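User: tokens in, sequence out, please.
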């Protein structure tokens, strides 16, 4: 059990704080990564952490093996002597041929009892303390992905896990602040990706735009993910005119038309087909641009039922020796969900220009 008793005499005034009694298991388990990518028939290490909530715990940890996948060893012993102690255990997982995503779970056996949940503590001043205990889960994907380029800079926005997804593809990712958008700091990168709503929540990006545009002009790739049209903290988002809107496609299964099927972003290093838009979750994209300069080439069109096709989900403009991309597609949902085609297309987007 986890009990946070009432507190009295806090601060200058006597107050009483009441919190629910929270029942927790003696230990919890957590995968190191929420998503793990595998080349077909390849082996990769999967790490799982065991965390004690009470002292003197020992047992064995095992992973499930979805059909076609294998795990070695079958189980791993652990011993935790004190509450709060952690131990990271490694398993070798072998993938089958390319196929749809699967979920791995982990189970810790202690004296014949199985424990398979994680723990998330939510503490904010404006809401009661809460403990979430979801089942520990990892999404595994066996997918053929070709990549070009190696080093990517990522400018965080309102919060997403796209940077971690890029690392899963094998890229070396460097977090960039607004002050890092200088020729010296950008030198050596192959691509720079701007996180979701970055231009809505950050005031430190506008000053770095000239260096970012110069980076693309010299041969780099810049990818800007979606922003809301209201509250933009910069006078421009791209080296060419671009007007955002509230346009969106909420049907995650909406048919996708290829407007420029021979464009490099749809062909290199991965050949993108309609199959890459299968299995998307929640939506195709949001806040699509509604107007753009003729330098931008719209690559895709899709729409909700009964509505006109929207062409602003993926816009690519050549810029000097490089390219500038603006995309309203919902990568921040697809990549954490392990959608294979989303990874393949994003790998094309961050690839150096040919």
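Assistant: Sequence out:
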């Amino acid at each position: 059990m986890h009990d946070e008793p009432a507190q009295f005499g806090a601060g200058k005034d006597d107050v009483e704080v009441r919190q629910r009694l929270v029942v927790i298991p003696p230990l919890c388990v957590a995968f190191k990564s929420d998503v793990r990518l595998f080349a077909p028939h390849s082996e990769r290490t999967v790490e799982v952490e065991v965390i004690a909530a009470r002292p003197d715990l020992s047992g064995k940890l095992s992973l499930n093996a979805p059909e076609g996948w294998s795990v070695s060893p079958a189980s791993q012993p652990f011993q935790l002597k004190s509450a709060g102690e952690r131990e990271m255990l490694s398993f070798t997982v072998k993938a089958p041929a390319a196929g749809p995503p699967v979920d791995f779970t982990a189970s810790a056996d202690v004296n014949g009892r199985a424990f398979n949940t994680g723990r998330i503590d939510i503490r904010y001043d404006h809401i009661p303390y809460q403990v979430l205990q979801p089942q520990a889960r990892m999404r595994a994907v066996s997918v053929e992905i070709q990549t070009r380029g190696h080093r990517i800079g990522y400018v965080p926005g309102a919060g997403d896990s796209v940077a971690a997804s890029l690392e899963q593809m094998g890229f070396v990712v460097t977090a960039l602040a607004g002050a890092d958008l200088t020729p010296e700091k950008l030198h050596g990168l192959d691509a720079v990706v701007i996180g979701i709503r970055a231009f809505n929540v950050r005031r430190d990006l506008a000053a770095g735009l000239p260096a970012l545009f110069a980076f693309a002009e010299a041969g780099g790739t810049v990818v800007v993910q979606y922003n809301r049209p209201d509250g933009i903290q910069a006078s421009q988002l791209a080296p060419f005119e671009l007007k955002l809107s509230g346009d969106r496609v909420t049907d995650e299964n909406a048919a996708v038309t290829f407007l420029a099927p021979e464009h490099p972003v749809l062909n290199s290093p991965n050949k993108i087909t309609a199959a890459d838009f299968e299995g998307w979750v929640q939506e195709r994209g949001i806040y699509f641009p509604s107007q753009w300069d003729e330098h931008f080439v719209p690559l895709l069109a899709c729409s909700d039922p009964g509505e006109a096709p929207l062409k602003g989900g993926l816009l690519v403009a050549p810029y000097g020796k490089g390219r500038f991309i603006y995309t309203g597609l919902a990568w921040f949902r697809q990549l954490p969900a392990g959608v294979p085609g989303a990874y393949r297309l994003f790998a094309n987007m961050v690839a150096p220009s040919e």
